[in-house]
């Protein structure tokens, strides 16, 4: 694709995350995707693939932030970019420190598991960053014709996040606060994490197209004047 190197990294990394996660569904058929969360793939024989997937998620967030930086001179937009980068840092933590088995429960969490959970908490910064970025380009002429796509992408991120959070809020208390077969949040978790990986990629690609369109428009003015 055309565009900045950071935009290309964001798109390729976001796509790589989805591919790697899809591979694990084939390689680890014993892990029921209806209730298991994606972090549990790190505990299996192919845990290294999930680690790579988390690193791809981190690269998508960090490279996407870098690609968007020139397009967001406003304070709110820059704060949004920092929040997306913070989510990328959280993905690095999740990659380095694998989750605890669900059977342990919160009271028996290991230091490694707590650091993984911290990474997941930092990942929750992405929807807020996406919202600030989307708001930050609302009056940008360069984003005309592409703002609607960014709004749609951000709405999908929020829809997936709310669906996962609501499922946890309803199902976890009924099962002692532990994940398990009765806590059917797996697909919601997968949709949310995939949205987190793809949003920076989509935003970076849209930013690349916006800059290209602005450059063409700028070049057309002198030609029209002649």
Features:
226 residues; mainly alpha; 7 helices; globular; disordered C terminus
Give the amount of beta strand, in percent. Answer: under 5%
Major sheet description: none
Q: Over all CA atoms, what is the radius of gyration?
A: 19 Å
DSSP summary: helix tally: 7
Total domain units? 1
Mean of residue pLDDT values: 89
- The overall strand count is 0
**Which term fits the overall shape?**
globular
Helix content: 55-70%
Pick out the low-confidence regions: 213-218, 220-226
Structural class, by secondary structure, is mainly alpha
Order of helices and strands: HHHHHHH
The span between the termini is 33 Å
Description:
This protein is mainly α and 226 residues long. The chain has one domain. Helices cover 69% and strands 0% of the residues. It contains seven helices and no strands. The chain has helices at 5-27, 47-68, 75-96, 111-123, 125-136, 147-171, 186-225. Helix 1 runs antiparallel to helix 2 (47-68), helix 1 runs antiparallel to helix 7 and helix 2 runs parallel beside helix 7 (186-225). The longest helix is centred in the last third of the chain and has 40 residues, at 186-225. It is globular. The chain starts with a helix and ends with a helix. The model is unreliable at 213-218 and 220-226 (pLDDT under 50).
